[in-house]
Amino acid sequence: MRVSIEDVTVRYGAHVALRGVSLAAEPGQVVALVGPNGSGKSTLMRAVAGLARHEGRIGLGAAPRGARHVGFMPQDIGPRVSLTVLEVVLLGRLASLALRVTREDVDAASALLGRLGVADLAPRMIGELSGGQRQLVFLAQVLAGDPAVLLLDEPTSALDLRNQLELLGLVRRLTRKKGLATIVSLHDLNVAARFADSIAVLCAGRLHATGAPGAVFTADMLRAVYGVEADVSADAGGLPVITAQRACVAAETKPAAARAAAG
Fold this sequence. Notes:
By secondary structure, this protein is an alpha/beta fold. It has helices spanning 41-48, 85-94, 103-115, 131-144, 161-178, 189-195, 213-216, 219-226, 256-262, and strands spanning 3-12, 15-25, 29-34, 55-60, 70-73, 149-153, 181-185, 198-203, 206-211, 228-234, 240-247.
């Protein structure tokens, strides 16, 4: 299912969090949202998920937007319920544990936990887990709903390096296999370059650039958006590798978002 975002603006009172953003995610494609803190990445995710009022248009293929089409994993996934890990994943499949749970449902939830390498956590309470373990469990919950659109807001923030690579590798494989339109926000630009088909750079609520990683990740972009001097090289596969060297002189006195807004 194609996601089309056309001239989307989001306001929180007098504050404009997003202004005139337009981009698209195609079926089978991973789009990485990157940008400094406060650039509007989470706001855009919430707008696509139908959780933030917006101006402009957000279209999901030929079908009207509905929760059954979208799987959204927000940043804030702290435990708020007294459920086991298996029950949390089943909620993604059934929407309510008041319904009868079949053996097929349990097997499907268990299989997802297995694919994410946390099958042994199934009987544990969600509140007992580390932040990284909870991220894996809530990703399993989102996938249990069999979405056509996958929205992941910083899904690797609490994960160690190996789990970051395994999770994003799984997300990319599922995106290809099931024809999902996947949008994922990331802070690690090198990870974004490795796993995303397309990069969308947000700065101060505006879309600064979009395109293939090799076209978007340039020294000029890093200087303008992040306020850093960086070397951009290519690995053996031609993917960009970013090595930050130092903060720009201007960045020491004025945040990047403020400089962008002023410009």
